[in-house]
Automatic annotation (TrEMBL):
Residues 47-113 form the (S)-ureidoglycine aminohydrolase cupin domain. The lineage of its organism: Bacteria, Pseudomonadati, Pseudomonadota, Gammaproteobacteria, Pseudomonadales. This is Cupin. InterPro entries: RmlC-like_jellyroll, RmlC_Cupin_sf, UGlyAH_Cupin_dom. Pfam families: Cupin_3. It comes from Pseudomonas silesiensis.
Amino acid sequence: MSQVLTVVRNAAASPLGETAPARLPIGEPIALAATGQAQTDDAVGASVGVWESSPGVFRRHLKNREFSHIVSGWCIFTPDGGEPVELRAGDAVLFPENCEGVWDIREALRKTYVLF
């Protein structure tokens, strides 16, 4: 049986879809985010793609586990009940299941992601 790979290509220059305001903004400015190369692989129960957000502060409210690689920009993510974590281009992060918290995007942030 052959395996089919799910690939995100050239994430730094990947075209993105239309921007939309953050779903759970905190204050001003309201961050705008967009996604590109969004793909779902039902065989492994995962979604992958490229995500970018303009500066702003908003809540993360995803129940999935997420692995992300920061392609450009920087932010501070503060998990509920945890310490702030600074993330910059080149960093990778694993969010555990049900990890909620606050994104503080300081410089337009682009990342690849895998939700599983």
